[in-house]
Amino acid sequence: MKVFTALELYCNFRKPRSKKKIYFDVTKFLSWVFILSSILVCASAIVNDFTEFELDEVNCTGTHLDSCAACEAGTYANENLKLCGCCTNGKGKCREVADCTPCDAGYEQPNPSQTVCNPCHKGYSTEGKEKSTQCTPCSAGFYASSEGSADCSPCPEGTASDKEASFVCPACQEGSYTDKTGQTECQLCGPGNFCSVKKCTECKPCPKGTYTNSSGTALCHPCWLASYQPQKGQTTCLECPAGTEARTEGAQNCTGCHPGTFKSKPGFELCEECKPGTNTSSSNSTSCGLCPMGYYQSDSGQPQCNVCPLGTYCNEEGCKLCSGCPEGHEARKYGAKNCTECIPGTFKANKGNSLCKKCKPGWYNTASGQTTCTQCPRYYFCPQTDHKPIPCTVGSYCPPGSTAMEWCSSPFFKVDQNDGCVATVEFIALVASLSVVAVIVATLIVVKIVRSNQSRLLILSPKLEISERQPLTSTSESSAPVYAGL
């Protein structure tokens, strides 16, 4: 800012800048000059005083202070200043008590006439105040971690201290927490909640499939077998409804009973297997049904019943096994509910799962449910196994077990008493005669053959002699003779 002298101000105000006249207030001007002069005088005195007692800190030459006052508790004599350091009658004093320096916040001095202040120990503070004669221990829920703390700090979230003069706040253990600062104790996680680490600021709800029914839980428990929990933050697990189960620990939902198993009512149980003789083919079953007649089931936990095989039957519901039919009875189709009698011409000797057998040829029976067949008697024949024997006619014979009549060719054969055909006398004579004739004929044929051979030999004899005397022959007059052999 530019400073104008009184003359310049006067001249400036006297200059005609416009047609309007400007008047200079001399009274106000003199008042301001007086005020400024007073301020300059005071400032000069302060500067001189500061220069005398503070700027020249170390040199006390010519500045010995004989009359000094002892600094009171909570203050100290700063010997780096002439006001205190140049006192000749002892340390811990200054020219006046007002010249003593107050202890800073975080420092204390319980004794008078001291040259320094002491820092507060850890766990103590001056509560933000200066000129303290004694440090105050931190209240419960607060701490001071370093020496010379002006104030105690509240314990952070996740920590707490129930003692005074704490220099550290212990962390909350697993299963406990604090969600505010300055707490004296950690709060336990409530039922249905947990905290698995130290220094928790909040507890979390137990996840689905878990629970806890106590306070201060670090980890939630998984739902036990056959129970479930579909929601978070729960104190117990639920039982599965009828027809459902939870086959693993920590289940969030129940699943339906598998085919072949059932559960009749709600509860903490797994589904049961259907017993032998019963089954269920659907899921979520609350009961098992009996196998129908003609079906069976010998194993547990099966979704289907098996059809009775051939030769067996089941005449009631809930069969575990199919039974074999008794003697004279059979089951000729799958899934039989009852046995039927062997039809005529068939039989079954023993109880079991075999079928009725047909009577062998020459045997018969004419009633149902037979266990044996009867051999066709002598003088009868049985062409069918389910019909009565038929008597043989005259001129035929039927030994036991005959399926047809045997005939003897008359007049050469006749039936004898042993049910067979024997030759008659006539047939024997005829055979003998024919035999004699056959011998004669054969003899004549042989004689004729012998004579024929002899005749041939006689005719060939002269030629053989000539050939023996002339072994060399000639095929023509001009050709050489050829050996013809003996």
UniProtKB/TrEMBL annotation:
User: Its domain of life?
Assistant: Eukaryota
Cite the Gene3D superfamilies for this sequence.
Answer: Tumor Necrosis Factor Receptor, subunit A, domain 2
Q: Where are the transmembrane segments?
A: 22-47, 427-447
Q: Name one Pfam family in it.
A: Ephrin_rec_like
Any keyword Membrane?
A: yes
Q: Can you give the residue ranges of the TNFR-Cys domain?
A: 120-152, 189-220, 274-305, 308-339
Annotated PANTHER family: INSULIN-LIKE GROWTH FACTOR BINDING PROTEIN,N-TERMINAL, KERATIN-ASSOCIATED PROTEIN 16-1-LIKE
Protein name, per record: TNFR-Cys domain-containing protein
Q: What organism does the record attribute this protein to?
A: Elysia crispata (lettuce slug)
